[in-house]
């Protein structure tokens, strides 16, 4: 919905009513990637505050669809609530950043994706310790998936790129969105076979981690490790291509 002028106060409630469905859509996308102590109701409450905030702050002079602006605010409100619950510790963020930096440097040096052993060696730790670290930062995947790629209110997220690349049901309204999806498809193909399988089963087939483990004949812990590593690689690769 795009208003021709800034909506008056009595229209804000209609904006909210007409776009309530966005809260449920975003909660549905994010709910499987958050800790168990944050339930769907917590996320929906936070998302509703984001939608209300969007209705209050919507500015048509920026030439942005309200839906786009609202999605950004709803997603941000949910992530803010997670931070208030002290889910994101600086230690975990530092570990995720360290892994990402090491993988990126190895990709430049080797001209290919490094395997687990090579990353562990570069981090100067046993393979088992590296894989344990991947499991520790697995929940940070929600942040990686829901952060905007260009940190703007119009920006697309990693999860948007995955879903759009799968659905491909309608042309994108902007050329840059088409280009971004192409970039994402190309870097996705550069992941290892198992990483691609995990991403496909998790986001395209919408299987649970337990179901993926059974389908791939792996432990749930290993699926979590592959998921974490795949998201870190995807974020590195997409951002490197966009900069």
Count of DSSP-assigned helices: 13
Number of strands: 0
H/E element order? HHHHHHHHHHHHH
Number of separate domains: 2
Query: Can you tell me the residue ranges where pLDDT is under 50 for at least 5 consecutive residues?
Result: 1-5, 165-176
Mean pLDDT comes to 78
CATH class division of the largest domain? Mainly Alpha
Which structural class fits the helix and strand makeup?
Answer: mainly alpha
Just name the CATH architecture of the largest domain. Up-down Bundle
Strand content bin:
under 5%
Any idea of the CATH topology of the largest domain?
Butyryl-CoA Dehydrogenase, subunit A, domain 3
Alpha-carbon distance between the termini? 31 Å
Rg is 19 Å
CATH superfamily of the largest domain: PhyR, sigma-like (SL) domain
How helical, in percent, are the residues? 55-70%
Characterize the overall form. Answer: globular
Q: How does the major sheet shape up?
A: none
